[in-house]
Give the backbone structure.
Amino acid sequence: MDIADILKQHGQEHLLDFGGLSPEERAAYAAQLENIDWETVELWKDPEDLSGKGRIEPIEGLRIPEIEKNRDFFFGIGKEAIAKGKVAAVLLAGGQGTRLGSDAPKGAYDIGLTKPLYIFEQQIKNLLSVVGVCGAAVPLFIMTSGKNDADTRAFFEAHRYFGYPEKYVRFFVQDMAPSVDFNGKILLEGKGRLALSPNGNGGWYSSLKRADADRDFPAIEWYNVYSVDNVLQRMADPVFVGATIASGKMCGAKVVCKNAPGEKVGVLCLEDGAPSVIEYYELTPEMAEMRDEKGDLRYIYGVILNYLFSAKRLSEIAQARIPVHVVKKKIPYLGENGMLVKPEKENGYKFETLILDMVKLAGSCLPFEVEREKEFAPIKNKTGTDSVESARELLKKNGVQL
Ligand code: UTP
Protein backbone atom coordinates (compact mmCIF):
# COMPACT_ATOMS: atom_id res chain seq x y z
CA MET A 1 0.00 0.00 0.00
CA ASP A 2 1.21 3.48 -0.74
CA ILE A 3 2.27 5.64 2.22
CA ALA A 4 -0.55 8.16 1.64
CA ASP A 5 -3.11 5.38 1.97
CA ILE A 6 -1.43 4.03 5.08
CA LEU A 7 -1.45 7.44 6.73
CA LYS A 8 -5.11 7.94 5.82
CA GLN A 9 -6.00 4.55 7.16
CA HIS A 10 -4.48 5.54 10.51
CA GLY A 11 -6.01 9.03 10.58
CA GLN A 12 -2.63 10.74 10.14
CA GLU A 13 -3.23 12.69 6.91
CA HIS A 14 -1.70 15.80 8.50
CA LEU A 15 1.70 14.16 7.95
CA LEU A 16 1.26 14.14 4.20
CA ASP A 17 2.76 17.57 3.60
CA PHE A 18 6.01 17.17 1.68
CA GLY A 19 5.99 20.79 0.46
CA GLY A 20 9.22 22.79 0.64
CA LEU A 21 11.46 19.77 1.30
CA SER A 22 14.63 19.11 -0.67
CA PRO A 23 14.90 15.67 -2.37
CA GLU A 24 17.14 14.44 0.49
CA GLU A 25 14.73 15.72 3.14
CA ARG A 26 11.82 14.10 1.30
CA ALA A 27 13.63 10.77 1.23
CA ALA A 28 14.52 10.98 4.92
CA TYR A 29 10.95 11.92 5.83
CA ALA A 30 9.51 9.11 3.71
CA ALA A 31 11.83 6.67 5.49
CA GLN A 32 10.59 7.91 8.89
CA LEU A 33 6.98 7.44 7.79
CA GLU A 34 7.62 3.97 6.46
CA ASN A 35 9.23 2.94 9.73
CA ILE A 36 6.29 3.83 11.95
CA ASP A 37 5.31 0.92 14.13
CA TRP A 38 1.53 1.30 13.91
CA GLU A 39 0.77 -1.36 16.47
CA THR A 40 2.56 0.74 19.08
CA VAL A 41 1.21 4.12 17.97
CA GLU A 42 -2.38 2.84 18.04
CA LEU A 43 -1.95 1.94 21.71
CA TRP A 44 -2.76 5.54 22.68
CA LYS A 45 -6.45 4.73 22.09
CA ASP A 46 -6.53 1.81 24.40
CA PRO A 47 -3.40 1.60 26.54
CA GLU A 48 -2.87 -1.81 28.01
CA ASP A 49 -3.79 -1.70 31.70
CA LEU A 50 -0.39 -2.27 33.20
CA SER A 51 -1.51 -1.36 36.69
CA GLY A 52 -3.65 -4.47 37.10
CA LYS A 53 -1.18 -6.51 39.11
CA GLY A 54 -1.43 -10.11 40.15
CA ARG A 55 -0.95 -11.47 43.66
CA ILE A 56 1.94 -9.54 45.21
CA GLU A 57 4.19 -11.11 47.83
CA PRO A 58 7.62 -10.30 49.25
CA ILE A 59 10.63 -11.94 47.59
CA GLU A 60 13.57 -13.62 49.33
CA GLY A 61 16.87 -11.88 48.76
CA LEU A 62 20.52 -12.01 49.76
CA ARG A 63 21.23 -9.54 52.55
CA ILE A 64 24.63 -8.02 53.21
CA PRO A 65 25.62 -10.21 56.22
CA GLU A 66 24.98 -13.35 54.20
CA ILE A 67 26.89 -11.97 51.24
CA GLU A 68 29.81 -11.15 53.51
CA LYS A 69 29.84 -14.68 54.90
CA ASN A 70 30.10 -16.10 51.37
CA ARG A 71 32.10 -13.29 49.80
CA ASP A 72 35.16 -15.35 48.87
CA PHE A 73 33.06 -18.13 47.39
CA PHE A 74 30.97 -15.76 45.27
CA PHE A 75 34.03 -13.77 44.29
CA GLY A 76 35.80 -16.88 43.02
CA ILE A 77 32.88 -17.87 40.79
CA GLY A 78 32.41 -14.33 39.48
CA LYS A 79 36.08 -13.74 38.84
CA GLU A 80 36.39 -16.92 36.85
CA ALA A 81 33.35 -16.06 34.72
CA ILE A 82 34.72 -12.57 34.03
CA ALA A 83 38.20 -13.86 33.23
CA LYS A 84 36.67 -16.28 30.70
CA GLY A 85 34.84 -13.45 28.90
CA LYS A 86 31.44 -14.70 30.05
CA VAL A 87 30.27 -11.36 31.46
CA ALA A 88 29.50 -8.23 29.47
CA ALA A 89 28.48 -4.78 30.65
CA VAL A 90 25.66 -2.90 28.95
CA LEU A 91 25.44 0.81 29.61
CA LEU A 92 22.00 2.25 28.95
CA ALA A 93 22.72 5.70 27.64
CA GLY A 94 19.86 6.20 25.21
CA GLY A 95 17.71 8.31 27.55
CA GLN A 96 17.23 12.00 27.07
CA GLY A 97 17.88 13.13 30.63
CA THR A 98 15.20 15.77 30.28
CA ARG A 99 15.15 16.41 34.02
CA LEU A 100 18.78 17.45 33.94
CA GLY A 101 17.89 20.04 31.33
CA SER A 102 20.87 19.45 29.04
CA ASP A 103 20.67 18.44 25.39
CA ALA A 104 24.07 16.72 25.51
CA PRO A 105 24.29 12.98 26.34
CA LYS A 106 23.70 12.63 30.08
CA GLY A 107 27.00 10.84 30.56
CA ALA A 108 28.85 13.86 29.16
CA TYR A 109 27.65 15.93 32.11
CA ASP A 110 30.55 17.32 34.12
CA ILE A 111 30.10 16.74 37.85
CA GLY A 112 33.60 17.89 38.80
CA LEU A 113 34.31 20.86 41.04
CA THR A 114 38.02 21.61 40.80
CA LYS A 115 38.56 19.64 37.59
CA PRO A 116 36.28 18.03 35.02
CA LEU A 117 34.79 14.69 36.01
CA TYR A 118 32.22 13.40 33.56
CA ILE A 119 29.56 10.86 34.47
CA PHE A 120 30.87 8.49 31.77
CA GLU A 121 34.39 8.93 33.12
CA GLN A 122 33.42 8.02 36.68
CA GLN A 123 31.53 4.96 35.48
CA ILE A 124 34.50 3.81 33.38
CA LYS A 125 36.71 4.20 36.46
CA ASN A 126 34.31 1.94 38.36
CA LEU A 127 34.47 -0.64 35.58
CA LEU A 128 38.24 -0.41 35.35
CA SER A 129 38.48 -1.25 39.04
CA VAL A 130 36.88 -4.62 38.20
CA VAL A 131 39.28 -5.13 35.32
CA GLY A 132 42.10 -4.54 37.78
CA VAL A 133 40.81 -7.13 40.24
CA CYS A 134 39.88 -9.79 37.67
CA GLY A 135 42.76 -9.26 35.28
CA ALA A 136 40.44 -9.19 32.26
CA ALA A 137 38.53 -6.52 30.41
CA VAL A 138 34.78 -6.83 30.16
CA PRO A 139 33.10 -6.23 26.78
CA LEU A 140 31.26 -2.94 27.15
CA PHE A 141 28.17 -2.22 25.03
CA ILE A 142 26.90 1.31 25.06
CA MET A 143 23.32 1.88 23.99
CA THR A 144 22.71 5.29 22.47
CA SER A 145 19.71 6.74 20.67
CA GLY A 146 19.27 8.37 17.28
CA LYS A 147 19.40 11.67 19.16
CA ASN A 148 22.72 11.25 20.94
CA ASP A 149 24.64 8.52 19.10
CA ALA A 150 27.07 10.74 17.18
CA ASP A 151 27.71 12.97 20.21
CA THR A 152 28.27 10.01 22.52
CA ARG A 153 30.76 8.31 20.19
CA ALA A 154 32.58 11.58 19.58
CA PHE A 155 32.76 12.21 23.32
CA PHE A 156 34.31 8.83 24.05
CA GLU A 157 36.75 9.23 21.21
CA ALA A 158 37.77 12.73 22.27
CA HIS A 159 38.49 11.38 25.76
CA ARG A 160 40.17 8.20 24.50
CA TYR A 161 37.58 6.02 26.15
CA PHE A 162 38.82 7.25 29.53
CA GLY A 163 41.48 4.60 29.45
CA TYR A 164 39.15 1.67 28.75
CA PRO A 165 40.52 -0.72 26.08
CA GLU A 166 38.74 0.48 22.96
CA LYS A 167 38.61 -2.92 21.32
CA TYR A 168 36.22 -4.06 24.06
CA VAL A 169 33.76 -1.22 23.44
CA ARG A 170 30.81 -1.36 21.02
CA PHE A 171 28.06 1.20 20.50
CA PHE A 172 24.58 0.35 19.30
CA VAL A 173 21.57 2.53 18.66
CA GLN A 174 18.18 1.88 20.18
CA ASP A 175 14.91 2.23 18.31
CA MET A 176 12.88 5.40 18.30
CA ALA A 177 9.11 5.74 18.55
CA PRO A 178 6.94 8.65 17.38
CA SER A 179 5.05 10.70 19.96
CA VAL A 180 1.39 11.64 19.57
CA ASP A 181 -0.80 14.42 20.94
CA PHE A 182 -3.76 13.67 23.18
CA ASN A 183 -5.86 12.96 20.06
CA GLY A 184 -3.42 10.40 18.77
CA LYS A 185 -2.02 12.62 16.00
CA ILE A 186 1.68 12.01 15.45
CA LEU A 187 3.62 15.17 16.27
CA LEU A 188 6.24 16.77 14.06
CA GLU A 189 9.36 18.37 15.51
CA GLY A 190 10.23 20.14 12.27
CA LYS A 191 9.18 20.30 8.67
CA GLY A 192 9.48 16.76 7.34
CA ARG A 193 10.65 15.41 10.72
CA LEU A 194 8.56 13.35 13.11
CA ALA A 195 8.86 13.97 16.84
CA LEU A 196 10.71 10.75 17.61
CA SER A 197 12.08 9.76 20.99
CA PRO A 198 13.95 6.74 22.33
CA ASN A 199 11.48 3.90 22.89
CA GLY A 200 12.48 3.19 26.50
CA ASN A 201 15.21 1.04 28.01
CA GLY A 202 13.28 -2.25 27.64
CA GLY A 203 14.38 -2.54 24.02
CA TRP A 204 18.10 -2.86 24.81
CA TYR A 205 18.40 -6.57 24.04
CA SER A 206 16.51 -6.53 20.75
CA SER A 207 18.45 -3.44 19.62
CA LEU A 208 21.79 -5.01 20.65
CA LYS A 209 20.96 -8.18 18.75
CA ARG A 210 19.65 -6.35 15.69
CA ALA A 211 22.95 -4.46 15.53
CA ASP A 212 24.79 -7.76 16.08
CA ALA A 213 26.93 -5.75 18.49
CA ASP A 214 28.14 -8.82 20.39
CA ARG A 215 29.33 -10.80 17.38
CA ASP A 216 33.00 -10.57 18.41
CA PHE A 217 32.31 -11.92 21.89
CA PRO A 218 30.83 -15.42 21.57
CA ALA A 219 31.72 -16.40 25.14
CA ILE A 220 29.16 -14.05 26.75
CA GLU A 221 26.78 -15.81 29.12
CA TRP A 222 25.70 -12.85 31.25
CA TYR A 223 24.80 -9.25 30.47
CA ASN A 224 25.12 -6.77 33.32
CA VAL A 225 22.84 -3.90 32.36
CA TYR A 226 23.01 -0.57 34.19
CA SER A 227 21.92 3.03 33.96
CA VAL A 228 24.07 5.97 33.06
CA ASP A 229 22.93 8.12 35.91
CA ASN A 230 24.28 6.32 38.97
CA VAL A 231 27.86 7.48 39.41
CA LEU A 232 28.54 4.94 42.17
CA GLN A 233 27.33 2.11 39.97
CA ARG A 234 29.51 -0.98 40.36
CA MET A 235 29.15 -3.09 37.26
CA ALA A 236 30.47 -6.58 36.50
CA ASP A 237 30.98 -6.86 40.25
CA PRO A 238 32.46 -10.37 40.66
CA VAL A 239 30.69 -10.97 43.98
CA PHE A 240 27.30 -10.11 42.46
CA VAL A 241 28.05 -12.17 39.35
CA GLY A 242 29.17 -15.14 41.45
CA ALA A 243 26.14 -14.97 43.75
CA THR A 244 23.74 -14.87 40.80
CA ILE A 245 25.43 -17.79 39.07
CA ALA A 246 25.50 -19.79 42.33
CA SER A 247 21.79 -19.11 42.90
CA GLY A 248 20.88 -20.82 39.62
CA LYS A 249 18.53 -17.92 38.85
CA MET A 250 18.15 -16.37 35.40
CA CYS A 251 18.66 -12.85 36.62
CA GLY A 252 20.18 -10.92 39.51
CA ALA A 253 19.23 -7.44 40.65
CA LYS A 254 21.29 -5.16 42.81
CA VAL A 255 18.97 -3.64 45.38
CA VAL A 256 19.16 -1.26 48.31
CA CYS A 257 17.01 -1.53 51.40
CA LYS A 258 14.36 1.18 51.28
CA ASN A 259 15.14 3.99 53.70
CA ALA A 260 11.47 4.62 54.51
CA PRO A 261 8.18 2.90 53.67
CA GLY A 262 7.24 5.71 51.30
CA GLU A 263 10.55 5.99 49.44
CA LYS A 264 9.88 6.57 45.76
CA VAL A 265 11.70 3.62 44.34
CA GLY A 266 10.57 0.56 42.38
CA VAL A 267 10.36 -2.50 44.62
CA LEU A 268 11.34 -6.04 43.73
CA CYS A 269 8.72 -8.56 44.83
CA LEU A 270 6.87 -11.61 43.58
CA GLU A 271 3.82 -11.26 41.38
CA ASP A 272 1.88 -14.49 40.97
CA GLY A 273 5.06 -16.27 41.99
CA ALA A 274 7.32 -14.58 39.39
CA PRO A 275 9.83 -11.83 40.18
CA SER A 276 8.44 -8.42 39.40
CA VAL A 277 9.34 -4.80 39.96
CA ILE A 278 6.43 -2.70 41.04
CA GLU A 279 6.40 1.07 41.20
CA TYR A 280 6.21 2.75 44.59
CA TYR A 281 2.69 4.07 43.85
CA GLU A 282 1.47 0.55 43.13
CA LEU A 283 2.19 -0.59 46.69
CA THR A 284 -0.75 0.10 48.98
CA PRO A 285 0.20 2.11 52.11
CA GLU A 286 -0.47 -1.03 54.19
CA MET A 287 1.91 -3.08 52.09
CA ALA A 288 4.54 -0.36 52.15
CA GLU A 289 4.40 -0.32 55.97
CA MET A 290 4.32 -4.11 56.52
CA ARG A 291 7.18 -5.44 58.64
CA ASP A 292 8.52 -8.89 59.46
CA GLU A 293 9.26 -10.30 62.93
CA LYS A 294 12.68 -8.58 62.94
CA GLY A 295 11.07 -5.23 62.24
CA ASP A 296 12.31 -4.98 58.64
CA LEU A 297 9.99 -3.80 55.88
CA ARG A 298 8.59 -6.79 54.01
CA TYR A 299 8.71 -4.95 50.69
CA ILE A 300 12.20 -3.72 51.26
CA TYR A 301 14.22 -4.19 48.09
CA GLY A 302 14.47 -1.01 46.04
CA VAL A 303 15.92 -1.53 42.56
CA ILE A 304 18.82 0.63 41.36
CA LEU A 305 18.85 -0.36 37.67
CA ASN A 306 21.71 -2.80 37.82
CA TYR A 307 20.61 -6.20 36.52
CA LEU A 308 22.46 -9.29 35.46
CA PHE A 309 20.62 -11.32 32.82
CA SER A 310 21.40 -14.82 31.59
CA ALA A 311 22.16 -14.65 27.85
CA LYS A 312 20.52 -18.02 27.33
CA ARG A 313 17.32 -16.89 28.99
CA LEU A 314 17.33 -13.66 27.00
CA SER A 315 17.52 -15.55 23.75
CA GLU A 316 14.61 -17.76 24.89
CA ILE A 317 12.40 -14.78 25.67
CA ALA A 318 13.54 -12.68 22.70
CA GLN A 319 10.23 -13.18 20.92
CA ALA A 320 8.08 -12.42 23.98
CA ARG A 321 6.12 -9.21 23.82
CA ILE A 322 7.34 -6.67 26.33
CA PRO A 323 4.56 -4.31 27.51
CA VAL A 324 4.51 -0.81 26.05
CA HIS A 325 3.88 1.97 28.56
CA VAL A 326 1.93 4.95 27.24
CA VAL A 327 3.33 7.89 29.17
CA LYS A 328 2.16 11.52 29.32
CA LYS A 329 5.07 13.87 28.57
CA LYS A 330 5.93 17.40 27.52
CA ILE A 331 6.79 16.95 23.85
CA PRO A 332 8.32 19.77 21.80
CA TYR A 333 6.40 20.14 18.51
CA LEU A 334 6.19 22.20 15.36
CA GLY A 335 3.74 25.02 16.02
CA GLU A 336 1.42 26.59 13.48
CA ASN A 337 3.85 29.45 12.86
CA GLY A 338 6.52 26.94 11.84
CA MET A 339 8.48 27.39 15.09
CA LEU A 340 9.32 24.69 17.63
CA VAL A 341 7.07 24.96 20.70
CA LYS A 342 8.42 23.67 24.01
CA PRO A 343 5.25 23.08 26.03
CA GLU A 344 5.06 23.97 29.73
CA LYS A 345 2.54 21.20 30.40
CA GLU A 346 2.18 17.63 29.23
CA ASN A 347 0.78 17.68 25.71
CA GLY A 348 0.90 14.10 24.49
CA TYR A 349 2.04 10.54 24.87
CA LYS A 350 5.34 8.75 24.38
CA PHE A 351 5.61 4.98 24.04
CA GLU A 352 8.20 3.24 26.17
CA THR A 353 9.22 -0.26 27.11
CA LEU A 354 10.95 -0.69 30.48
CA ILE A 355 13.77 -2.97 31.48
CA LEU A 356 12.02 -3.79 34.75
CA ASP A 357 9.43 -5.71 32.72
CA MET A 358 12.24 -8.01 31.58
CA VAL A 359 12.81 -9.15 35.16
CA LYS A 360 9.40 -10.76 35.08
CA LEU A 361 10.07 -12.37 31.72
CA ALA A 362 13.36 -13.73 33.08
CA GLY A 363 11.25 -15.95 35.38
CA SER A 364 13.57 -15.99 38.39
CA CYS A 365 15.62 -13.28 40.04
CA LEU A 366 18.05 -12.92 42.94
CA PRO A 367 17.76 -9.64 44.88
CA PHE A 368 21.34 -8.85 45.94
CA GLU A 369 21.61 -6.16 48.61
CA VAL A 370 24.28 -3.48 48.33
CA GLU A 371 25.16 -0.58 50.59
CA ARG A 372 23.27 2.46 49.44
CA GLU A 373 26.00 4.91 50.47
CA LYS A 374 28.57 2.97 48.47
CA GLU A 375 26.67 2.07 45.33
CA PHE A 376 23.73 4.38 44.80
CA ALA A 377 24.21 7.98 43.75
CA PRO A 378 21.62 8.66 41.05
CA ILE A 379 21.62 11.89 39.10
CA LYS A 380 18.15 12.69 37.85
CA ASN A 381 17.76 16.39 38.70
CA LYS A 382 19.99 19.44 38.91
CA THR A 383 19.35 20.09 42.60
CA GLY A 384 17.62 18.44 45.56
CA THR A 385 16.94 14.70 45.74
CA ASP A 386 18.86 12.47 43.33
CA SER A 387 20.74 15.41 41.95
CA VAL A 388 24.19 16.47 40.90
CA GLU A 389 24.61 17.93 44.41
CA SER A 390 23.57 14.79 46.29
CA ALA A 391 25.72 12.60 44.04
CA ARG A 392 28.75 14.84 44.66
CA GLU A 393 28.33 14.42 48.41
CA LEU A 394 28.20 10.65 48.04
CA LEU A 395 31.22 10.59 45.75
CA LYS A 396 33.19 12.60 48.31
CA LYS A 397 32.19 10.16 51.05
CA ASN A 398 33.61 7.40 48.87
CA GLY A 399 36.90 9.17 48.51
CA VAL A 400 36.42 10.44 44.95
CA GLN A 401 38.24 13.73 44.35
CA LEU A 402 36.02 16.30 42.74
P1 UTP B 1 15.34 7.35 33.01
O1 UTP B 1 14.12 6.56 33.22
O2 UTP B 1 15.86 8.11 34.16
O3 UTP B 1 15.09 8.31 31.77
O4 UTP B 1 16.45 6.37 32.45
P2 UTP B 1 15.99 9.44 31.10
O5 UTP B 1 15.46 9.58 29.72
O6 UTP B 1 17.46 9.19 31.21
O7 UTP B 1 15.74 10.73 31.99
P3 UTP B 1 14.48 11.72 32.05
O8 UTP B 1 13.35 10.93 32.62
O9 UTP B 1 14.22 12.19 30.64
O10 UTP B 1 14.96 12.84 32.95
C1 UTP B 1 17.03 5.31 33.17
C2 UTP B 1 18.16 4.75 32.34
O11 UTP B 1 17.66 4.19 31.12
C3 UTP B 1 18.28 4.81 30.01
C4 UTP B 1 18.77 6.14 30.50
O12 UTP B 1 19.82 6.63 29.68
C5 UTP B 1 19.19 5.80 31.90
O13 UTP B 1 20.46 5.18 31.91
N1 UTP B 1 17.30 4.93 28.92
C6 UTP B 1 16.07 5.47 29.15
C7 UTP B 1 17.65 4.48 27.68
O14 UTP B 1 18.78 4.00 27.45
N2 UTP B 1 16.71 4.58 26.68
C8 UTP B 1 15.49 5.12 26.88
O15 UTP B 1 14.69 5.18 25.92
C9 UTP B 1 15.17 5.58 28.15
